[in-house]
């Protein structure tokens, strides 16, 4: 492992986005995972966070190509997947598991201290890293202490810091910007509540649909009862190649990167309303 790699922060992207992204990869695994794959499914910021998370977990290599591990992970089901995720956690979060805390008994503060010792980052990022770690462990079936889990729940449902920050923004333009940003990036949080009183409320996913070029996520907020959906556009290179080959079978093995880039560009330039 090079020094540069070691400096890379643990994942701090929303775990739900990561999970949805894996679901999408399960459908089409491109030869290289980059912007051309997720299109405008994710903002540039989230795309960067996703790539960095995938790198950290050794699911893609330095050239952003899927690793054998990613292939096995997305093919694995049920218990196999849990076991594989445990292995990934063990390796990627060795600084936690092989460190000097016992995650079965330690507190959230202990865990935070471990993250802070291993990496330099600000509070917000640190809590996001820990949040991802906890969600990952949950999915991998790795038990954590009650205190860590409880504290995490409180952190996730608490909206104090954010709404305090937002209420300062009495400038109409700032507020509009905040709402735009919120709708773009914090899609797990109820857009109705945020639009009404700037409260950040976690909504739950009630369905999601994968289409060849888009994923739609249907959410419901328990606070206001509002439902909303997010529409992410994304498609894979493989899908484009299939379409070309369907029209021009003779080209099947001659499809170049340039062709893919051109076609991607044409696809992306379509106007899909707000996106
Ligand atoms: Zn709501």
- In N-to-C order, the SSE pattern is HHHHHHHHHHHHHEEEHH
Low-confidence stretches: 1-6, 158-170, 271-275
Proportion of helical residues: 55-70%
Strand tally, please?
3
Task: Walk me through what this model shows.
By secondary structure, the protein is mainly alpha-helical. It folds into three domains: 3-157; 172-233, no CATH class; 236-275. Helices cover 56% and strands 8% of the residues. It has helices at 3-7, 15-27, 35-38, 44-56, 68-75, 78-92, 94-97, 108-118, 123-140, 146-157, 160-167, 172-185, 191-197, 237-247, 257-268, and strands spanning 204-210, 214-220, 227-233. A three-stranded antiparallel sheet has the order 1-2-3, with no helix packed on it. α5 packs antiparallel against α6, α6 (78-92) packs antiparallel against α9 (123-140) and α8 (108-118) packs across α9. The longest helix has 18 residues, at 123-140. It is globular, with a radius of gyration of 20 Å. Zinc ion binds at residues 190, 192-193, 201, 221, 223-224, 226.
């Amino acid at each position: 492992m090079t020094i540069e790699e070691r400096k890379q922060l643990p994942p701090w992207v929303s775990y739900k986005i990561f999970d949805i992204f894996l679901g999408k990869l399960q459908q089409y695994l491109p030869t290289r995972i980059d912007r051309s794959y997720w299109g405008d499914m994710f903002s540039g910021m989230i795309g960067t966070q996703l790539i960095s998370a995938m790198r950290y977990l050794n699911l893609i290599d330095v050239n952003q190509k899927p690793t054998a591990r990613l292939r096995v992970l997305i093919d694995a089901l049920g218990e196999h997947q849990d076991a594989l995720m445990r292995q990934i956690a063990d390796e990627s979060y060795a600084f936690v598991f092989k460190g000097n805390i016992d995650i079965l008994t330690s507190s959230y503060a202990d865990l935070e201290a471990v993250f802070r010792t291993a990496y330099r980052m600000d509070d917000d990022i640190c809590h996001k890293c820990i949040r991802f770690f906890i969600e990952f462990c949950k999915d991998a079936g790795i038990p954590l202490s009650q205190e860590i889990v409880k504290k995490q729940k409180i952190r996730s449902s608490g909206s104090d810091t954010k709404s305090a920050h937002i209420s300062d923004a009495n400038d109409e333009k700032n507020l509009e910007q905040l709402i735009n940003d919120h709708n773009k990036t914090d899609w797990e949080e109820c857009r109705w509540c945020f639009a009404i009183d700037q409260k950040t409320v976690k909504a739950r996913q009630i369905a999601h649909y994968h289409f060849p070029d888009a994923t739609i996520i249907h959410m419901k907020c328990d606070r206001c009862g509002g439902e909303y959906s997010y529409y992410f556009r994304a498609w894979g290179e493989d899908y484009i190649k299939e379409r070309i080959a369907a029209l021009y079978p003779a080209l099947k093995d001659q499809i170049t990167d340039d062709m893919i880039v051109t076609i991607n560009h044409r696809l992306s330039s379509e106007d899909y309303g707000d996106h």
